Amino acid sequence: IYINMAEKELGELTLHDWEFEPVPNKPGYSQLVDNNTHEEKEHNDKVFNRAREIEKQEWSELFVILKGQDYTKFSK
After folding, report:
1. Element (H, E) at 39
2. 2, 18, 40, 54 — which has fewest CB within 10 A?
3. What is the DSSP letter of 32?
4. Is 27 buried (19+), middle (13-18) or exposed (0-12) by CB count in 10 A?
């Protein structure tokens, strides 16, 4: 949910299909190929960081609500 919210603010994540290549000197093993450009990585990082900020803000707001008001400050 938070990633969707961040994507609405900053634009969608750049996602590529998974691509594997053989690992040199290790027959039978494969490794994932990173096809993202530098700009795509930076954009995705911004989206993920914003998603974490939104999550932290919403949890903080929830805890303030759950904590409730300081009833000792009410006038009698």
Report:
1. helix 38-67
2. 18
3. E
4. exposed
